[in-house]
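Record 1 of the preview.
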Amino acid sequence: MFSATLGELAGVTGRRSVRGVLLPSLVFCCLALLVVATGRGSAHAALHAWRVGSWESKVLVVAGFVLVLVCVATALGNAQTALIRLAEGHWSPPVRRTIGRLGLGHHRRLVRHADEASTHDRYPPRTRPHDIMPTRIGNALKAAELYPRLRYGIDAALVWPRLHPLLPDTFLTVLGAARTGLTALLASAFLSVLLAVGGAAYLWAVHAPTPLFLLCLWGGGLAAWACYRGALLRAVVYGQHLRVAFDLYRGHLLEAVGRPVGDGEDERAHWERLCLFWHRGILPHHVATPDRPAQPTPEPEPARTPPGFSPSISHLTAAAFAAAGLAGALTGGG
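->
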């Protein structure tokens, strides 16, 4: 949800754009060029061909590289919100019914058996299992989304676009930096997977040496895993900043709209009436209906697994990379 309502932070320029879009794109293009150059021969042969080539061919290569870099960076910049939603677990129905179901079962089991201190900023409360997402990043951001609702009765999707313009510049700088770190690592993880799969497929097709094929596939997969783990830590920090924004500045919004909390008035009921007015046009002087928790949708029973083993999407992804590497090494190595 926050990935859709915080889109205004994705358009930052300057150092944030370089860090979040241009740098991952540059690394990806350089590594892709290295894979293509070494696929049909050694790096030394590719360097020799560059040295003996004409200046016209060198200009064309550089121009083509810059054009590809600009295209990749532009596409990556426009897809930042989509990448966050993908990392959160907002998938199409077929994927949600298969891989998503596996992820939901895994994280629900983790929440049931974990202590409250280790999950309070990484998962929704265990009393709301229907809000658990199929990915770790999705759960961290969902926990931040639910915080204003549970503490103050605030619907974050309605209030955040109105609260954001009132935040001070210093806080916006910190919040933007946190989000830029999250999107940069997610972009790096996505490009690493793309390079691992696409580069390995190319190396397999041209019958490149097996060590080079495995290095591209497994090295890219390992880099994607490391970037995703880093993005998870950034998501937790980003969620903490969002909580702080509601804790410190929600009163500024009430003053801006001319409806401060009166003496002896319940703040939670006040926010619920205001959110009903913004969402459905119900006048604030009407009594708000109690906020009833959503009923969890009945979930099919998860597949039985051995005691102490809880398969996750990460386990399946690692197994898929390992199987693809072994199959490619046996069938297409040079």
